[in-house]
Amino acid sequence: MTGIRQLSRRKFLIGASSTITGVGVGALVSPFLLSMSPSARALAAGAPVEVNLSKIAEGQLLTTVWRGKPVWIVHRTASMLQALPSNDASLRDPTSALAEQQPSYAQNPHRSREPKYAVLIGICTHLGCSPSYRPELAPADLGATWKGGWYCPCHGSRFDLAGRVYKNVPAATNLVVPPYYFINEHTLLIGEDAAA
User: Is 155 a catalytic residue?
Assistant: First the structure.
């Protein structure tokens, strides 16, 4: 009987020590394996961002974040779009000739895929401040010729409602248009431009 007990005890001890060893190895290896895959925060930092456009009223600005940068989406009114060409003589780059500032599908007078929606990275191209959205016409502090756009309070740069920079301001280039496309009529995906 003693031999059977010793054999059972030996099997039990071998099984228990194997289990404990397996758990210990798993505990040591799992942090290493987990460190090899990107964190949720890292994935989100570069992942495309989906935006519901049905919540944006005409004339309204919606701000979202993509890759740690503010992205502005403005639902432009018909009058905002009609005013854009009248700014051309006052702008540094009215035709958006600098290709790095926008994808090819946004190299047009309204700088967007769909004229009624402006999609811009909300960082001034001068020193990285975030300009203020100023959609009103001819406010006292911006002058009688102001037709809406963005004003950077840091150093006075001005951009029209297509994100095009005015002449004689510190910013040298237009606001950047990120890659994006419309999934459907009410949904925008920022961060990819594969779909046309």
Answer: yes
